[in-house]
Amino acid sequence: SGESKITRAAAGQRGQQMKMGTCCGCAHRERGHYNIGKYEVLPSNTGAYFVEKYLGCGGYGKVAQCTRLDNKVKMAVKIVRNDMTWAGKREVAVLQKLRKLDQDKNNLVRFAEHFEYKGHVCLAFEMLDINIYDFIRSRDFQPLHLSEIRVITQQMLVALNALKSVGLSHADVKPDNIMLVNHHQQPFRVKLIDFGLAANISKIHAGTLIQAIGYRAPEVILGLPLDEAVDMWSLGCVLAFMYLGQNLKDKDSSNPSWRLNTEAEYMLLTGSKTRRYRGIFDKLTSLNDITKTRPEVNDTTESEDTQAFLSLLKRMLQVDPQKRITLSEALGHRFITMKHFPHDANPNPYMSAAFTTITKCQLEESSVKFNQNKENVFEEDSTILLTADQDYKLMQSKRY
């Protein structure tokens, strides 16, 4: 049988297993990680997984592409570090909670089961395609089209709204954690993955260090009370990344990676100089400037779509979380609903392309309903990314 052939192959290779490299190429990060062996068989509570190849790793564990021996379905198995068993069990608890939701309709990775193997917690998920960061990197960091950004954003808003419906915040939204499902069959159909940092909204305490540095909300950096608004900030940074083809903010600096004051003001507040950032960040004085990174738009519909995109982005990147757009407001925003498109029986090529992107993506209606509030009137012209002094100083005053 096919299963016995795979099993025999695994047994034949057991004595000469090929270890699949060091974690992220850094040997010093290997502590606690399991050295996944190619052709290894991972027994679970419901069957067994035949390891085919190493996919990557994160802070909590490694991920391997496997085939279930009983049904030959490809799966992604996350093997958690043995010194972070608590993190694996916490993620399992979150994933069990998400099983109350329709994971396909709500754009959440399907969780199959968890088991233990040689002292490591293992989590089995459906096999997806490629994450947004690697996808854009494969295109030499060419930005996405607004119609593509729209469908990805809508799906992530649905996913985050579903999490909120069960009282959860993801707390680690970034391009690496947004996966294309099957880009060939369903272009730009995506799912949210990696719930290692997800937590009950009511239990996210002020001062908790969450989120990747380049996607970290101001209130996290300042040690202020936290809620699901942190995910909206991160998603706004993802939108900027997809539009620019590069991070809006420095993702590697351990210092606050967004500048809300002039260099002199930062020096006065912290006693240290700001780091001089290279690339797109230095060229911006407001979010309006990001349109300068693209060719000039002559089509009226595309111009209006760009303004709608900027409107949503500005509201996502509001420094004060109380002023930041909510999930229900974002789902009803004109950039997502395309209400700003003219009602025309013969749509122009730009509109046709936008509708085609939605059709090819094969979106399903979320099983979690949301209050589709009317888009609030919002004063945007004064929204400055790099010098939002009033909000920043007000937020700083709340720390004491």
Textual characterization of the structure:
- This protein is of the alpha+beta class.
- It folds into two domains: 2-126, Phosphorylase Kinase, domain 1; 132-397, Transferase(Phosphotransferase), domain 1 (Orthogonal Bundle), CATH 1.10.510.
- The chain is built from twelve helices and ten strands.
- The strands form three sheets. The chain has a six-stranded antiparallel beta sheet with strand order 1-2-3-4-6-5, covered by helices on one side. Strands 7-10 form a two-stranded antiparallel sheet.
- The chain is globular and about 60 Å long.
What is the assigned CATH homologous superfamily of the largest domain? Transferase(Phosphotransferase) domain 1
Backbone shape? globular
Main β-sheet, spatial strand arrangement: 1-2-3-4-6-5
The figure for the number of domains is 2
**Which structural category do the helix and sheet elements fall into?**
alpha+beta
Largest sheet: 6 strands, antiparallel
What's the CATH C level of the largest domain?
Mainly Alpha
- First-to-last CA distance: 68 Å
Instruction: State the CATH architecture of the largest domain.
Output: Orthogonal Bundle
State the helix count.
12
Low-confidence stretches: 9-18, 24-28, 254-262, 274-279, 377-389
